[in-house]
Recover the amino acids of this structure.
């Protein structure tokens, strides 16, 4: 949710998570709140799903229960990506 940049919406999301509501109910409520606040939630949610799937495919995160967790190799993989990025910037 941080990628949305709206503190009110992020706070609302955290409250809903702590209430342990079903994911579909949270999504529905956050979508309505985002619309009320004028935040483009549909686009942000799509981008979020793309990032999650990319990180899962890269074996950087995994789902445990209702949460995403970083793998033991997360920092190693991140350092590898940083090395590639630095080499690319030199060119």
């Amino acid at each position: 949710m941080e990628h949305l940049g709206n503190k009110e919406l992020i706070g609302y999301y955290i409250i809903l998570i702590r209430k342990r509501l079903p994911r579909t109910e949270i999504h529905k409520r956050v979508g309505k709140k985002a619309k009320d606040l004028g935040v483009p939630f549909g686009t942000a949610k799509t981008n979020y799903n793309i990032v999650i799937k990319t990180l899962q495919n890269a074996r950087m995160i995994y789902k445990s229960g209702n949460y995403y967790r970083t793998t033991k190799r997360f920092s190693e993989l991140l350092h590898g990506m940083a090395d590639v990025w630095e080499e690319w910037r030199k060119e």
